[in-house]
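Request: Show me your protein:
***
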Amino acid sequence: MSSSYRDLDIYNASLNLFFKIHSLSLKLPKYELYELGSQIRRSSDSVVTNIVEGYGRKRYKADFIKFLIYSHASNDEIILHFNKLLHLCPAIMGPHQDLVKDYEILGAKINKFIQYVELNWKS
C-alpha cells in the first residue's frame, strides 16, 4: 500500500494531464473558453481531485472505490469534451490530439486500480 496518494501513478499522471489541459484550454477562442473550455478544465480537475479525495477515505473500501469510479467517469468525460474541441477548434487542439490517447491510457490505469482495490484492499 502507498503511504500517500502522491505515490500513486494515477495521481501523478492525472495531475500532469490537468496542467497540460488547463493551459491548452486557455488558448481557446472566447466563445469556447467559458463553455467547453470550462467543462474540460473542470472534468480534468475532477479526475485528479477524486483520486485524492478517495485516497483520503481509503480506510473505507466502498468510499475509496466510489471516488475512483467518479475519477474514471470524469476521465471519460474529458475524452468526450476533447473530441468535441478537436472537431470545433482543430487548429488549436489538433496538434495536441495525443492527449486523448494519454487520457485513454490513464482511464485504463484507473480501471486497473479500481480492480486492485476491489480484490486486495482491506477495509
User: Anything to note?
Assistant: The chain has one domain: 5-120. DSSP finds six helices and no strands in the chain.
